[in-house]
């Protein structure tokens, strides 16, 4: 079954730093009015939530936009633009009741027509292409009153509420014809301005329907040079930066607190199966046997991190299966497989890495060194982020790339849909008939238990075929100025600026 559109799996080329807080100088009133957030890249794909692809873009848009539902810090789905919803007995019809007096950032009240327009646009029903694979299952969207919208599915999908909570399913004004450059949402922060390659400015939305944000102004400072991050933090021009390396945290002065969590992504060397020699499964398995994940963690993050063996991370709970021992380090086994595949003397290839993500660069350096042990020469090719998006992700013009891939919705499919042969976001060109057949069963299943087991079978398939050289769900280190508190980790790749606040005692 061909699924339409790119699932909103934020492509977390990992380490998209997040928020920098706080004023660099001045009294408490100054500090509480402005926070500077360090991020490693400009938001270059689109500020339209229905078109945004990169995790670094969507984690920022999380503060500007909201869907009918949204995730909380525990991974639970809670009402947002919709105050409640119901599902028909056959599981095909979802009826959403819009919350009273929800305002867009332009001052207009959200209407049922805005909701209908947004869902249809996100689903690709208005002529655009959907970024949410599951929305191809939407049969109709109908306004049933001033505050009610009915969504009818072609097939029952028990994960549908999670897709509705996806950033790519955010509600936007029907009359905004330039959402890619003039984002207007309903979130706790509103877009103010952007200086390309310099900064993005957000402001607290005073008419927000929910709990208001604590910090008045946020400046997202773009720091594309990973070597400059610590300098900016210690120099006082940035008050918070997420997803640092352990080495970077050790270089911080004592005015920062370092928080630790999980990134909720899968860092791996992603292989392009449409190019030689990665069209040969024995080559892929050989590389997996050659890599020592424990040493990668020891050398890049003081041993911190969560080894994974497939495209799923531990926070997915019941869907996750630990396959991290699938390829114990065995250089002799790796050499045997290379010889079997016709490469007894090894080969050379390039690993493309975004230059603004130091943890990926460091991991690639260790991987390249380890592969030399089996006669394989891996050249690290550093590229700018926008080039990675256009050439690797969209163009699929690469041999291998080391990044982190995350899920933008709390569904197992958000991690696994991308390996279906004809999936538009299958940037690795992975193709396996058994994998596709398992997915067909998932689409047809109405049993959560059965779907859970099928998702595990998909993970086993990826591991058995060494679809990628799997490394880890990375430990996340966040540097936060000791003037501030309230940073919250989510079980998905987002940054929640609204919970940040100035400490009452200033320490």
Secondary-structure-derived class: alpha+beta
Give the DSSP E fraction (strand runs of 2 or more residues).
15-25%
CATH topology of one domain: Dipeptide-binding Protein, domain 3
Helix amount: 25-40%
CATH superfamily of one domain: Dipeptide-binding Protein, Domain 3
Q: Which stretches of 5+ consecutive residues score pLDDT under 50?
A: 1-31
CATH first level of one domain: Alpha Beta
- N- to C-terminal distance: 57 Å
How many strands?
21
Q: How are strands sequenced across the largest beta sheet?
A: 14-18-13-17-15-16
The pLDDT mean sits at 89
What is the name of the CATH architecture of one domain?
A: Roll
Number of helices: 14
**Which shape, going by the Cα principal axes?**
globular
Report the major sheet.
6 strands, mixed
Q: Radius of gyration from the CA trace?
A: 23 Å
Describe what you observe in this structure:
Helix content is 25%, strand content 23%. The protein has helices at residues 28-33, 55-61, 112-122, 160-164, 229-235, 246-250, 281-290, 293-301, 331-340, 358-371, 385-394, 413-416, 433-444, 448-464; strands at residues 34-39, 69-71, 77-79, 82-87, 93-98, 138-145, 148-153, 189-195, 199-204, 217-222, 240-244, 256-262, 265-271, 306-307, 348-354, 377-383, 400-406, 468-473, 475-481, 484-485, 501-502.
């Amino acid at each position: 079954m061909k699924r339409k559109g790119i699932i909103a799996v934020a492509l977390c080329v990992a380490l998209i730093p997040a928020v920098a807080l706080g004023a660099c100088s001045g009294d408490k009133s100054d500090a509480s009015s402005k926070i500077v957030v360090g991020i490693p890249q400009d938001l270059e794909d689109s500020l339209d939530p229905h078109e945004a692809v990169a995790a670094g873009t969507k984690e920022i848009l999380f503060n500007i936009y909201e869907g009918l539902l949204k995730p909380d810090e525990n991974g639970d789905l809670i009402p947002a633009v919709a105050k409640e919803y119901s599902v028909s007995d056959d599981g095909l019809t979802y009826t959403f009741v819009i919350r009273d007096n929800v305002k867009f950032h332009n001052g207009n009240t959200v209407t049922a027509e805005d909701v209908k327009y947004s869902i249809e646009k996100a689903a690709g029903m208005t002529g655009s292409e959907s970024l949410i694979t599951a929305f191809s299952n939407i049969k109709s969207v109908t306004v049933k009153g001033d505050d009610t919208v009915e969504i009818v599915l072609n097939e029952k999908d028990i994960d549908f509420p999670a897709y509705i909570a996806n950033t790519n399913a955010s509600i936007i004004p029907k009359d905004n014809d330039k959402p890619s450059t003039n984002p207007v949402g309903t979130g706790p922060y509103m877009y103010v301005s952007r200086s390309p390659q310099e900064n993005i400015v957000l402001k607290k939305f005073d008419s927000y329907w929910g709990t208001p944000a604590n910090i008045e102004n946020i400046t997202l400072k773009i720091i594309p040079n990973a070597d400059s991050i610590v300098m900016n933090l210690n120099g006082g021009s940035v008050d918070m930066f997420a997803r640092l390396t352990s080495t970077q945290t050790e270089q911080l002065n004592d005015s920062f607190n370092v928080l630790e969590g999980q990134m909720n992504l899968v860092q791996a060397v992603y292989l392009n199966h449409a190019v030689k020699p990665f069209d040969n499964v024995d080559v892929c398995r050989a590389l997996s046997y050659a890599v020592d994940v424990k040493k990668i963690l020891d050398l890049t993050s003081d041993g911190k991190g969560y080894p994974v063996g497939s495209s799923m991370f531990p926070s997915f709970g019941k869907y996750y299966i630990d396959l991290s021992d699938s390829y114990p380090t065995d250089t002799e086994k790796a050499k045997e497989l290379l010889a079997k595949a016709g490469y007894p003397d090894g080969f050379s290839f390039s690993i493309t890495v975004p230059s603004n993500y130091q943890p990926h660069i460091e991991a690639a350096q260790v991987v390249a060194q380890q592969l030399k042990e089996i006669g394989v020469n891996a050249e690290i090719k550093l590229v700018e982020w926008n080039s990675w998006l256009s050439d690797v992700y969209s163009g699929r013009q690469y041999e291998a790339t080391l990044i982190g891939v995350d899920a933008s919705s709390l569904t197992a499919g958000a991690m696994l849909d991308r390996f279906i042969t004809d999936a538009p976001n299958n940037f690795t060109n992975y193709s396996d008939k058994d994998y596709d057949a398992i997915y067909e069963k998932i689409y047809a299943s109405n049993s959560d238990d059965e779907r859970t087991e099928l998702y595990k079978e998909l993970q086993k398939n990826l591991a058995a075929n060494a679809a990628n050289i799997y490394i880890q769900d990375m430990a996340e280190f966040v540097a936060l100025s000791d003037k501030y508190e309230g940073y919250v980790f989510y079980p998905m790749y987002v940054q929640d600026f609204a919970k940040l606040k100035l400490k009452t005692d200033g320490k």
